[in-house]
Amino acid sequence: MLLGIAMIEAISEANKVKWMTYQLRTTTVAVMAALSILLTGCVSTQLGQNAEQGQLIVAPVMPDYKLEVTLARLNDILASAELTVEQRARFHYDRGVIYDSVGLRILSRIDFHQALKLQPNLADAYNFLGIYYTQEGEFESAYEAFDAVLDLSPDYDYAYLNRGIALYYGERNELALSDMQSFYDGDEQDGYRALWLYIIEAKIDIERAQKHLRAHRHKLADSAWSTIIIDYYLGDASREQVFDLAKQGLTHPNEYAERLCEAYFYIAKVAQQQQRYNDAANYFRLALATNIYDFVEHRYARVELAKISQSLNQE
C-alpha cells in the first residue's frame, strides 16, 4: 500500500532511495487497496423510488486531499529524484493507476506510454492500454496490447477477461468465449467470472448460456454479493432484492456505490437482452453516475450507451 503523506514528508534524502525501492515492490493490488482508503466515498449513491425511470440521488464527496498531495509528491519525485530506468518506469505506472482510478484517462494513458518507453516488458501497462483501446473501439490495437500482456506474463488471467471483452465488443464472439472460458476456469467460485462467461455465451446461444449459468451457480457461495446478481439473471431473485442486498454487509464507505455500479450495469445488460433499450440506457447512465471509474462495469457502461444509441438511430 502507498506510504502515508506524513511518512513521505519525514523521510530524508538519504532514505529516499530506500523508500523508492519499497514502492517498486508494491503490486497493482496494493496500489488499488490504498486508493480505496484515500478515496473514501468518492460518491455516495442512494437508489431512487423508480430505477426504471432513471431516478437517482447522488451526493458526491470530494476526494481526500491526501490523494492530491500524494500525486504532488509523485510529480516531485519524477521531476527531481535520481531514479534508475526501472524505478522511473514503475513510478510512471503507479501514478497512471492513480489517475485512472479518478477518471483522468488522458493523464493515465500518457503515464502508461511513458512507463513502456522506459520498460517495454511492463505487462501491467499493456493491460491498461488494451482496456483504453477497447473503450475507444480500437479493437486491433486492444488485441495486440493484450497479446503482449500474455506473451510477457502467460499466467496474467485478467488479460483473458480484458481480451475477451475486447473481442466481445469487436463482435468476435467465438474467440471472446474461448478467452472468457479460460478466465472462468481460473476461479470457478468467482461470480463475476460466471456473469461475463454468460454474457458472452448468450450472444451465441442463450439457452445453452442459461443452462451453464445455472450449473455455475451451484459452485458459488450464497453469501457472496455477486451471487444475488446471478440469481436475478436466472429469474430466482427480483430487482428489488438485488438493491436491498446491496445495502447489507457493507465493510467500507465506498462499497455501496461500488455495488450499485455493478448492479446497474448487469441489470442493464438483461434489459438490453430483452430489447428494453430505454430501460437499459437508464441503468447504464446510473452505473456511470456512481463514478467508480476503475470498475469494469463503469468502464464499459459508456460503450454500451453508444451501442444502444447507434442501434436506435439505425431503426
TrEMBL record:
SUPFAM superfamilies reported in the protein's UniProt record? TPR-like
At the top level of its lineage, which domain of life is listed?
Bacteria
Give the record's subunit note: Homodimer.
InterPro entries the UniProt entry points to: Lipoprotein_NlpI, TPR-like_helical_dom_sf, TPR_rpt, Ycf3
Q: Does the keyword Electron transport apply?
A: no
Name the chain's protein.
Answer: Lipoprotein NlpI
Q: Does the keyword Transmembrane helix apply?
A: no
Where are the TPR-type repeats located?
Answer: 123-156
**Described purpose of this protein according to its UniProt entry:** May be involved in cell division.
Keywords from the UniProt entry: Cell membrane, Lipoprotein, Membrane, Palmitate, Repeat, Signal, TPR repeat
Cell compartments where the protein resides: Cell membrane
